Amino acid sequence: MKNWMGTGSAALSFVLWGMLPLYYQFMPEINMWELLSHRVLWSVVLLAGLFLLLGHRVPWATLRGEPRQLGLILLAGPIMSISWCMFTWCLTTGQVLATSLAFFMTPLFNIAFAVLFLKERLTPQKHLAVALALAGLAYMLFSYGQLPWFSLIMGANFALYGLIKKQVKLDAGSSLYLESLVQLPVALLIIGWLSLHGASQFMAGDWTERLLLMGSAPATLLPVGLFCYAVTRTPMSTVGLLQYIEPSLAFLLAIFWFGEIPDPVKSVGFAFVWAGLLVSLLPLHRLRRQRAGWRAS
After folding, report:
1. Are 280 and 250 in contact (CB under 8 A)?
2. pLDDT tens-digit map of 251-273
C-alpha cells in the first residue's frame, strides 16, 4: 500500500506540474523576480497558517540534533529556486515547449543519480524502459545537431533536488516550510525594492492580479509537496520514469492549447519515451509468477 501511495503521489505531482501552464496563462505581465518572490512569501504564509490550523509543529529539537538533515533542507531551497527561475522564465516568455524539453532530460538524471548515489538496481524491465527513453533523447539530439545546454542544466538541477529530498527524513510540510523560510529574506528584499521604486506589479495591479500572484504559492506547493511525499516512499528510478508525464502534458498543451507549432522531432522522441513508460508500468513480474505457477502445476 505504501508503495502505491508513493507511486500515485508521484504521478499526480507530475500531472499537476504539466498543467501549470494553464494557470500561468492568466498571470499578468510581471517581473520574473517579483513573481518568484511572491511565490516564496505566500508559501511561507500559507504553510504557517496550515500548521497553526492543524496544530502541526516543526520539529526544531530534532533538527538541532541532526545538523546534516537541516543542512540538506537548507540546501534544497536554493536548488529548487534555480529550477523555478528557469521554469518561470520559460512560462512567462511563452516557451512551453522549452519546458517540455528540459523536463524530458530530468528523468534520465534521476535514474542515473539513483544508480550512482543510491545504489538502486534496475530490473530488466526498467533497463528496457531507460533504453527506449535514451533512444528518444538520442534521436532528438541528433536531429537538433547540438546539445540543449539550458535543458540539461535545468534537468540536472531538478534531479539534484530530488536526490537531496530522498535523503531528508522530515515530513514534506515541514521540509517545504523551511525551504521557503530560508529564501524569505531575499524575497522580501526584492519585493521591498520594487515597491520603493514604483516597479511592483502587485502594488499597481488590481485585486484579480494580486490574487493570481498569491495563488502561485498553492499552485506550485501542491505538486512539490506530493513530489516530496512520493520521493521518500518510491525508488528514484521509478520516480524518474513517471516524471515523463510532465513534459508530455506540457508538449500536448503547447500544441493543442497554446497553438505552438508542432515539432515532429519531439513527437518521435515522446513516442519512444511513452513506450518506455508503459513498459516500466506493465505488471510483467506478475506474468512471470503466473508462468512459474503454471509450470509448477
Report:
1. no
2. 777 777 777 676 787 778 778 87
Neighbours of 58 (CB within 10 A): 18
CA 204, distance to chain mean position in Å, is 31
DSSP at 262: P
| Residue 266 Cα distances to 12, 111, 116, 141, 241, angstroms | 23, 21, 28, 10, 17
DSSP conformation class of 260: P
Domain spans in the chain, listed from the N-terminal domain onward: 4-295
Kind plus residue range of the DSSP H or E element containing 268: helix 264-281
Alpha carbons within 13 angstroms on the beta-carbon side of residue 243 total 30
Q: What is the pTM of this model?
A: 0.75
Nearest Cα residue to 105 out of 128, 118, 120, 86: 86
Round to whole Å and give the CA distance between 161 and 159: 5
For residue 84, what is its C-alpha cell? 523555478
Q: For residues 44 and 35, what is the distance between their CA atoms, to the nearest angstrom?
A: 14
Question: Mean pLDDT of successive 10-residue segments in the chain (297 residues)?
Answer: 73 86 77 86 93 88 84 86 77 61 73 82 79 81 70 80 85 88 92 89 83 88 87 80 78 75 74 76 51 44
pLDDT at residue number 139: 83
Cα gap 8→5, rounded to integer Å: 5
Cα angle for residues 141, 152, 35 (degrees, 5° grid): 130
Q: Would you say how long the chain is, in residues?
A: 297
- What is the amino acid identity at position 132? L
What are the distances in angstroms from CA 91 to CA 21, 26, 258?
7, 11, 11
